[in-house]
Amino acid sequence: MSSAATAQTLDKNGQEIKAVGFKRFGFDSEVALDVLRSLYLRPHYAPATTEPKDAAIKADSEEDKFSLFQSKSIYYPETHSISYTTLSRFPPVKLLPPSERKRILVTGGAGFVGSHLVDRLMILGHEVTVIDNFFTGSKTTVSHWIGHPNFEMVRHDVVEPFMIECDQIYHLACPASPPHYQFNAVKTIKTSFMGTLNMLGLAKRVKARFLITSTSEVYGDPEVHPQPEDYWGHVNPIGPRACYDEGKRVAETLTYGFQRQDGVDVRVARIFNTYGPRMNPADGRVVSNFIVQALKGEDMTVYGDGKQTRSFQYIHDLVDGLIALMNSGESRPVNIGNGDEFTIGEFAELVREIVEKVQDEDGVKRERRVNIIYKPMPTDDPQKRRPDTTRAKETLDWQPRWTVRMGLEEMVRYYKAKMEEGSL
Ligand code: NAD
Ligand code: UDP
Question: Mind listing the domains of the chain with CATH numbers?
Answer without folding.
Answer: 2-41+93-420 (3.40.50.720)
